[in-house]
Amino acid sequence: MAELTPAGQKVYDALKRLGATSPDALKTADDIMRASRLPKGMTNNALMELVAKGFARRVARQKAAGYYLVK
Predict the structure, then answer these.
(1) For all residues of the chain together, what is the average pLDDT?
(2) Which of 9, 14, 52, 57 lies at a CB distance of 3.0 to 4.6 Å from 36, suitable for a disulfide?
């Protein structure tokens, strides 16, 4: 995916590896951070990029927001 930054691509791949491909399989930013081995700030920026470009969705929950892939 040429339209993603390197960090965005890493986070996308981590979400895929974690199996976060439906609203039933949400992963938190901390899960994604550990899987992608990126710093927390970089992970959050990459997640916002994925959400903004329509690759992922963010679901607000009680404690921590969850993320899953759309495309």
Answers:
(1) 93
(2) 14
